[in-house]
Request: fold
Amino acid sequence: MFAKFHWRSLTLGLVALALAGVASTASATHSWNGYHWARTSNPFTIKLGNNLSGAAWTADGSVNHLTVASSDWSTSDVLTTTVVTGLAKSRNCRPTAGRVEVCNATYGNTGWLGIATIWLADGIHISQGTVKLNDTYFNTATYNTPAWRQLVICQEIGHTFGLDHQDTNFDNANLGTCMDYTNNPLGPPDNEHPNQHDYDELDVIYNPLYGGHLDSTTTIGQPITNKAAADIDSGNPSNWGQLVKSSQGGRTAIYEMDLGVGHKLVTFVIWALEGR
Reply:
């Protein structure tokens, strides 16, 4: 036998649930200066170019770290990612317009463990991105673990969507997200994957219901208008431009380079302990 509906109670309950969702999402506060991909509808798809090599990245205990990160970020309700064949033919990890290239190499004693670089088409809209993972340090005793690889690849990819960190204190208790700095990725809780707060922030950035907006054009899959910008080797610190932010005694840093006519190169750096 069916129960009788009380429409007023049902309506109030739905309103309460909706407001609870808004309150939860609105509490997320780690957008990276409002940087975002221009797109005309949600959900949208970002291609992740797979340029990774070596069993440590592609089959670390039967785990492919890029595949895991892609699956994690695709849990968002505003964006999905798909892993595709990489187009970056050299260790420079040359970017491809409208997508993100993910690379690893023994970049040497540069000091950095991982970097995420985004190209801004007009000061705010991401037009392409790269993630570089430095095996010079991932091959050391400190970082040669599946947990460190998963945290860093997850975090750097998150930056290419416009996310900042939830916490920049390495000594604080883990928040259970890869967007949290830590000295111990395994925790507990472990910091190898995004958490709900990250998905909430993506809603704040991209979902009009929570403060985001749609654009009249798209930068996804589109050619970059500043051709010279694509040839910059973002792994070379001399190409990072001006330091605009540093945290935790310099263990992380953000640099910006003005490329002219509204274009900008922004690089997020995680320094290795051995490199400081």
Q: What stands out?
A: The chain has a mean pLDDT of 85. The helical segments are 7-26, 55-58, 65-73, 135-138, 146-159, 196-206. Strands lie at 36-37, 44-51, 79-85, 100-105, 112-120, 125-134, 242-247, 252-260, 263-271.
